[in-house]
Amino acid sequence: MDWERIRIFLEVARAGQILKASKSLRLNHATVARQLTALERGLNAKLLERHTSGCSLTPAGEALLAAAERAESEFLKVGSSISGATAAVSGTVRVGAPDGLGNYFLADQLGALAAQHPGLVIQLVPLPRTFSLSRREADIAITLDRPKQGRLILSKLTDYTLSVYAAESYLTREGPITSQAELAGRLFVAHVEDFAYSRALDYAAVLGRLMSRRYECGSVVAQMEAVRAGHGVGILHDYVARRHSGLRCLLPDVRFVRSYWITSHPDTHETRRVQEVHRFISAAVKAARSSFELK
Predict the structure, then answer these.
(1) CA torsion 170→172→174→175, rounded to 10°?
(2) What's the CA gap between 126 and 238, in Å, rounded?
(3) Which residues are CB-contacts of 288 (< 8 A; sequence separation ≥ 6)?
(4) Whole-angstrom Cα distance, residue 112 to residue 18?
(5) Angle 187-231-240 (CA atoms, 0-180°, nearest 5)?
(6) Residue (of 134, 151, 92, 104) closest to 260 by Cα position
(7) CA 267/CA 68 separation, integer angstroms
(8) 59-68 contacts, C-beta under 8 A, 24 or more apart
(9) Helical (H) or strand (E) element with 258
């Protein structure tokens, strides 16, 4: 069986689209389609149902995907053990993270790690979404909820807090806020409910009952910048907000505690590059743990 064709099949199965997979593989769309057809003929089985919107796996495709991922994992482990004899850490590691932690903490920390290892490529994907480790959307994923399903290597990174904030300029213009009753009529800078990918984001409902006027932003970065600009009141990560002298923490009795969890897949966790990035993230968060919570 041609491993190159299996590798192409793996990428298409994970991407769900031939076009998307071809871009990732840096191959021509027609080449990818031709290799898939050749693989199906060689196996005398239909592996993919091809639709205008993408591809879906047949039962035979599901079986091949499971076997191919096991084989891929063995290749990765062997490659890691062989290269482990050298001092250099090399290869690509993709880290999926919530946009708050990704943009305001990991971007700086992982940049320093990448600078230390010329052969290591770190792909930081700080987006408000979940990542599938089994489908290789990421090698390491940081989540807001503790995963309860799947074969995962899991540990808690840290708790963190969020509080109610407004800009000094906003409070000067619109008046002070010293109680929850004074939130009435204020503009609430919040996340977009349709994009809420985790139960940990339910804290907005508490203030939403008090403030009917809303400005909804799809990312933590956008919420932070809208509050800093003096447009309204928002619930912000304390470890980010305390960096900005123009923000004032309001209502000390309203505070939310959430957690970050770090996960990796057993099939790739033992590779040296993934271990190095995983260890680095855990150590960096541990060293800064006191800054993540507002006491």
Answers:
(1) 130
(2) 18
(3) 105
(4) 35
(5) 105
(6) 104
(7) 12
(8) 61/9, 61/13, 64/6, 64/9, 65/9, 65/10, 65/13, 68/6, 68/9, 68/10
(9) strand 247-264
How many Cβ atoms from other residues are within 10 Å of residue 4's Cβ? 9
- pLDDT digit string (tens) for the chain, length 295 residues: 688 888 888 888 888 888 888 888 888 888 988 988 988 888 889 999 988 888 889 999 888 888 887 777 666 656 655 555 455 788 899 999 999 999 999 999 999 999 999 899 999 998 877 787 777 788 999 999 888 877 788 999 999 999 999 999 999 999 999 999 999 999 999 988 877 777 777 777 878 888 889 999 989 999 999 999 999 999 999 999 999 999 999 999 899 999 999 999 887 787 888 999 999 999 999 989 889 987 6
SS3 string of 21-70?
Answer: HHHHHCCCHHHHHHHHHHHHHHHCCCCEEEECCEEEECHHHHHHHHHHHH
Element (H, E) at 74: helix 59-83
Overall residue count recorded for the chain in this entry: 295
Q: Tabulate helix, strand, coil % of the chain (nearest 5).
A: 45, 25, 30
Query: What is the C-alpha separation between 225 and 32, in angstroms, rounded?
Result: 43
CB 233 within 8 A of CB 204: no
